[in-house]
Design goal:
The chain has 76 residues and is mostly helical. It has one domain. The protein has four helices and no strands. Helix 1 (3-17) crosses helix 4 (54-70). The longest helix has 17 residues, at 54-70. The termini are far apart. 20% of the residues are buried. The chain binds zinc ion. Residues 21, 23, 25, 33-34, 36-37, 74 line the site of zinc ion.
């Protein structure tokens, strides 16, 4: 496993348990994003965040974060 993959997994898990969303708003620990961010995601990306495997979760989280920044404009 590459260091990049490992660090993304760590980042995704740390973010999952944090209480701050990537947009800066408050969120619940154990939820990927705050409600407005989560609602801004396409259904495919929302569903991908529910998978149990942490490797797949990290990829799904990373893609969703990119989407929120680039497509939804929720991260500045
Ligand atoms: Zn948010």
């Amino acid at each position: 496993m590459s260091p990049l993959t490992k660090s993304l997994r760590q980042l995704a898990v740390e973010d999952l348990y944090s209480k701050t969303c990537v947009c800066g708003a408050a969120k619940l620990s154990g939820q990927s994003f705050c409600h407005p961010c989560f609602r801004a995601l396409p259904p495919r990306m929302r569903n991908a965040l529910y998978v149990a495997c942490s490797i797949t979760y990290a990829d799904a989280w990373d893609e969703a974060r990119d989407y929120l920044r680039i497509e939804a404009g929720r991260i500045r």
